[in-house]
Amino acid sequence: MAEKQTILGRISQLAKANINSLLDRAEDPEKMLDQLIRDYKNNIVEAENAIAQTIGNTRLAQQDLAEDKAAVQEWGAKAAAAAATAQRKAAEGNQAEADRFTQLARIALGKQLDYEKEVASSEPIVASQAETAEKLRVGLAGMKDKLSQLQSKRDELVARAKAAQAQQKVHDAVGSINVLDPTSELSRWEDSVRQQEAQAAGHAEIAASSLESQFAELESAGDKTEIELRLEALQRGVLPPSGTQDQITQG
């Protein structure tokens, strides 16, 4: 009985173990949880075997007790029958037969007394065994429930660990792209784009400057023509003081 209680005590301690502490010390928490579940299952199987044996022994003891109680009744009935026969033989005047049945009644009463003593000593033991077997059975059901909880907790922790690892990977990926870092690929590409934009703007500015110079040259040529026309008009004496090119042309 003590050995079986030790088995249950060991499993109970395992069920109450600080899983978080175990995981903190584990290099691979998922493997640690799987090993913990395997150990728990193995101990439950060991406990089932021990409890089954205890229950089996209890049933045998209960059967023996029931047989002893039946024997008490049986030998009591035999003693009563032998005593009655002894009285009848004595009444018939057959003392020898009366003495023989009286002796049989004594033997039967002795057997009855022996079985009564056996019942008295066995009954509390069998009752204790039955109580222990019931407690073990309830405890086993509780351990199986703990196993189910442990498996659910394992799945939850593994899912949370994988989610945390995924978040960390995203964080590391984002952190590796630093647009403010001039040594990063993205920054170098941005600089290249800016240089291309600047070069395109320069070409546009050059083109615009060339076009402006052409128009300036055209305006300059127009001014020279105006001067010549006015000079010719002066020489002819027909240029009005505020005349325009059109007036000169008409004159």
TrEMBL record:
<dbReference type="Pfam" id="PF04012">
    <property type="entry name" value="PspA_IM30"/>
</dbReference>
<keyword id="KW-0175">Coiled coil</keyword>
<comment type="similarity">
    <text>Belongs to the PspA/Vipp/IM30 family.</text>
</comment>
<feature type="coiled-coil region">
    <location>
        <begin position="30"/>
        <end position="57"/>
    </location>
</feature>
<dbReference type="InterPro" id="IPR007157">
    <property type="entry name" value="PspA_VIPP1"/>
</dbReference>
<feature type="coiled-coil region">
    <location>
        <begin position="133"/>
        <end position="167"/>
    </location>
</feature>
<protein>
    <submittedName>
        <fullName>PspA/IM30 family protein</fullName>
    </submittedName>
</protein>
